[in-house]
Write a structure and sequence with these properties.
InterPro entries: Biofilm_reg_signaling (IPR052155), EAL_dom (IPR001633), EAL_sf (IPR035919), GGDEF_dom (IPR000160), Nucleotide_cyclase (IPR029787), PAS (IPR000014), PAS-like_dom_sf (IPR035965), PAS_4 (IPR013656)
Strand content: 15-25%
Strand order of the largest sheet: 17-18-20-21-22-23-24-25
Domain GGDEF: 335-473
CATH topology of the largest domain: TIM Barrel
Number of domains: 4
Number of strands: 26
Radius of gyration: 44 Å
Number of helices: 27
Protein name: Diguanylate cyclase (GGDEF)-like protein
CATH class of the largest domain: Alpha Beta
Domain EAL: 484-737
CATH architecture of the largest domain: Alpha-Beta Barrel
């Protein structure tokens, strides 16, 4: 018990000493501040008893940077005490005069101060220590105890204090510079919401200067919504924030422009309450940064995700969403309009004879024509290259059929008299085939309706084109079965009877400026000898399970072609497109490996292309498939790179060596800054992954120059060469493969 009492006693004494030392030093600091300010009023230190001097001596022993002297009329240091004596090197000054221990420079300064104190005036001076050469503050005050006047002198080493002050000043300056130079807007408001500090970025949000914002109300300036669960719902958000438990909030808000003519801007604003040690709010720190461009970018990306980039119409995804909404609004038994699929007749001829740019101009014009034809309550979408969908939201079967008939005539006659199309004779060859189905209020989906309308459109093409086919539900079922059976039989016959042919489209190496590759494109030979585009039979092959069989035919003939081409130029490569169903079929991988070994060709000359939209059913099987063939030397290319997010998923998980940049970005890069930005980014990604980059849809010399400036490795398109029989590019192949 006694030990505990002693410990408590020592603790109490130490606490008392700490308080006494703090109070004494605060008094010295206050005196120093007053002296610096020029307040040199007479001051006398009165010591009532020896006990006080002893207490002062004890306190001084706790201050390592302070010395206390008592100086008599002869300027002799009668007393010298304090822990600072050792550090300052003045242990032997007691009993010596100023003239014996100080430098001439200090004697001049200190003698004046000491004599002033002896005369009854308090003074403060600063000198450099004679011994340590460190800066000292010296306070000399009258000291009355006996008959003869004396001076009480306190000397304090200021070096470390000044160092701390300079460090604090430097940190403060750096913080101020950080705040002022910050790209994020920063403001400080008092608890009433009045702004007291702003930086340039904050001023830029409001297109004004700091002076105009000072003392304005943060509540009025920043229209933040009320704090959730606020105790004072009628007060401003600053007061509500101070009263809230968290004292923190972040909001995405809309800022009005400087004038009513200016567009609004978006900003993210965060505010936090700053409090003192007692928990009282002292101010509110506000951070705000302009997100207008980010907001526009996200809006634009959302627009791109739901719209066709060429025409600005809805894309398939957005159209199906709109159609689902329409189905949900229909009531049982009501006529709910119709869904149309519009397909341009012989659009491939337009593209191949006039070029993709003329084809794009035509598609834009046709999109505008259909958009003007529909009512404001209807919807129009572009589904593919030359395929459009229309939702007629009202009308019965007879009304819808009359509308479809008028649209057929509108397309046929709508391009006459337009100079840009008459100049190339386009107005004489534009017709469309339209498929239509009625919308029912139950038992169907948007995807089903589109599929049925697409089937009706093919029915219209089979019956002479330049017309329409409006199928009833019973007719749709029959047409589905008939169409699938007919095309399946046709594809099987073409494979078995060799009624397929490969055409080649050249790929230009932009480094050597030589044709170094051919993309081999399959065509089906129709009964009349004309060629059927793969767009008409590939999807049926996918659905009917014939895709792998078709790919076997293509790969077999491509390897034969590659062997003959390598005899002409050993560096040449051929590209072939594979179905997503084939990529992952390990038996098909063995089939390719066997054909390569049997032919003796260099496998590195075979490039197997997979489109971004191809449905790879099993990513693990696809990896095994691709590893098997890359081990032999084959190269895989990702086609349509950039058209969707699937590209990046495939790049991450599958071993591609080539990326083919989507043609829409290539063709638009010259005139659309966003397309150019996307193109540049895609090239950077491909290069960063160590892949070869090839751009499609190259239509002119300007596009080629642009691609070269972006560092693209290869180019493909009508400007380089159109699809044609292989001997067109290599006359040595006098017999088509």
């Amino acid at each position: 018990m006694r030990g505990a009492e002693r410990r408590r006693g020592r603790g109490s004494l130490l606490a008392a000493l700490r308080v006494a030392v703090r109070d004494w030093r605060d008094g010295i600091d206050a005196d120093s501040s007053s002296a610096v300010a020029g307040q040199n009023e007479p001051s006398v230190v009165a010591v009532p008893a020896d006990e006080s001097e002893l207490r002062l001596s004890v306190l001084l022993d706790q201050l390592p940077d302070t010395i206390l002297f008592i100086v008599d009329e002869d300027l002799r240091y009668r007393v010298a005490t304090g822990a600072g004596r050792r550090g300052q090197g003045v242990l032997d000054w007691e009993g010596k005069t100023l003239f014996e221990v100080s430098s001439p420079e200090n004697i001049v300064i200190l003698e004046r101060a000491y004599r002033a104190a002896l005369a009854g005036n308090r003074t403060v001076v600063r000198v450099s220590s004679t011994v340590t050469h460190r800066e000292n503050e010296v306070i000399a005050a009258p000291y009355t105890r006996g008959e003869h006047p004396e001076a009480l002198v306190v000397a304090r080493d200021l070096t470390e204090i000044r160092g701390r002050e300079m460090a604090l000043r430097l940190v403060t300056q750096q913080f101020e510079q950080l705040v002022l130079a910050s790209p994020t807007g920063i403001a400080l408001a008092d608890p009433q919401g009045r702004i007291s500090l702003v930086n340039d970025a904050f001023c830029a949000l409001f297109d004004t200067d700091a002076e105009s914002l000072m003392d304005t109300s943060a509540v009025h300036l920043l229209p933040l919504p009320p704090v959730e669960g606020a105790n004072s719902p009628g007060s401003g958000w600053v007061e509500q924030l101070i009263l809230s438990p968290s004292g923190l909030r972040t909001d995405d808000i809309e800022l009005p422009g400087p004038t009513v003519m200016d567009e609004t801007r978006r900003a993210v604003v965060s505010a936090v309450v700053l409090r003192d040690g007692a928990g009282e709010a002292t101010s509110v720190l506000i951070n705000a940064y302009d997100t207008t461009e980010q907001h526009r970018y996200h809006e634009h990306m959302a627009y791109i995700a739901s719209h066709d980039t060429l025409t600005g119409l809805m894309n398939r995804t957005a159209f199906e969403r709109r159609l689902d909404e329409h189905l949900a609004s229909c009531r049982d038994g009501e006529d709910c309009g119709a869904v149309l699929v519009v397909d341009v007749d012989n659009f491939r001829d337009i593209n191949e004879q006039l070029g993709h740019r003329a084809g794009d101009d035509f598609i834009v014009a046709l999109a505008g024509m259909i958009s003007r034809w529909v009512r404001s309550t209807d919807a129009v979408a572009r589904l593919g290259a030359d395929e459009f969908a229309v939702l007629l939201t009202e009308g019965d079967r007879a009304q819808a059929e009359a509308a479809v008939n008028s649209l057929v005539a509108q397309v046929r006659d709508g391009f006459r008299g337009l100079e840009q199309f008459e100049a190339v004779g386009l107005e004489r060859r534009v017709t469309a085939s339209i498929g239509a189905v009625s919308v029912f209020s139950h038992g169907t989906t948007a995807a089903d309706l589109l599929s049925d309308a697409d089937l009706a459109m093919f029915h219209a093409k089979q019956h002479g084109r330049n017309g329409y086919s409006f199928l009833e539900p019973s007719e749709v079922l029959a047409a589905r079965a008939s169409n699938q059976i007919n095309w399946t039989a046709k594809i099987l016959a073409a494979i078995e009877n060799d009624q397929l042919v490969l055409h080649g489209q050249p790929i230009l190496d932009l480094t050597s400026n030589k044709i170094t590759a051919l993309e081999l494109l399959v065509r089906m030979i129709d009964d009349d000898g004309s060629l059927i585009s793969p767009a008409q039979f590939i999807s049926v092959a996918e659905q009917s399970g014939l895709a792998v069989m078709l790919d076997e035919w293509v790969v077999t003939h491509a390897i034969t072609c590659l062997g003959r081409l390598q005899q002409i130029d050993p560096t040449i490569t051929v590209h072939v497109n594979l179905s997503g169903r084939s990529v992952g079929d390990l038996d098909f991988a063995d089939f390719i490996a066997t054909r390569l070994l049997e032919s003796g060709v260099d496998a590195s000359g075979l490039v197997l292309e997979l489109t971004e939209t191809a449905a790879v059913s099993n990513i693990d099987s696809a990896q095994a498939f691709m590893r098997t063939l890359t081990a032999l030397g084959c190269v895989f290319a990702l086609d349509d790179f950039g058209v969707g997010y699937g590209s990046f998923y495939y790049l991450k998980h599958l071993p591609f060596g080539i990326v083919k940049l989507d043609g829409e970005f290539v063709s638009g890069s010259e005139r659309d800054p966003l397309d150019l930005l996307v193109m540049s980014s895609l090239v950077s990604i491909g290069k960063g992954l160590g892949m070869v980059t090839i751009a499609e849809f190259v239509e002119d010399a300007n596009s080629l120059t642009l691609l070269e400036s972006l560092g693209v490795d290869g180019a493909q398109g009508f400007y380089i060469g159109r699809p044609a029989p292989l001997e067109h590019y290599f006359p040595q192949l006098d017999v088509a493969v």
